[in-house]
Design goal:
By secondary structure, the chain is of the alpha+beta class. Helices cover 15% and strands 33% of the residues. The protein binds calcium ion. The site of calcium ion has 7 residues, from loops.
Amino acid sequence: MHPSHFIAAGLLTSLLACCQQQTMLVHACPPCRAQGQECVILARPHWNDTGITLEKGRRYQFHVSGRWTDWFVPSDATGPLCPLFDLALLPTRPGLRYPPSRDLRAKYFSLVGTLGRPQDGRALPAHAFLIRPGMIYQAPETARLHAFANDLPFAYGNNKGCLRLRVQELPARKSEP
Ligand SMILES: [Ca+2]
């Protein structure tokens, strides 16, 4: 066998071992979708209506927990948990619904939030952004928060799992009304 075959087989074994280990962390999704300022974002739908309205000028902190899975690749809100998969998928990232041209950190299964959603369900609204765990976001307009797992538009059929998102409104700064 050619040495490159040994290397490829070793990489494949490592990837599968990583995935099997991480897939055990994927939680079953609870039946609820939104409760107060906490909601569940499913990986399968193109859009999740969080039921949460953000108000213009107010600041919010996003808390995200859980794991979801694209085909057999486990991910969290920032993308695939196995770095080698992340590297392998790099050339196809421009086709993502929220592509790296909008934010270089955009990966497969990054959690994306939008203010409102378009009627035709395709193009993203003007305000779309990556929801990074712990990040603080000041809403540029008053609108309902929607969210989805970043993926190729035609590739949602093999998505599984969910993340739990908690939106915490922060107190206004002293200079704010
Ligand atoms: Ca997929």
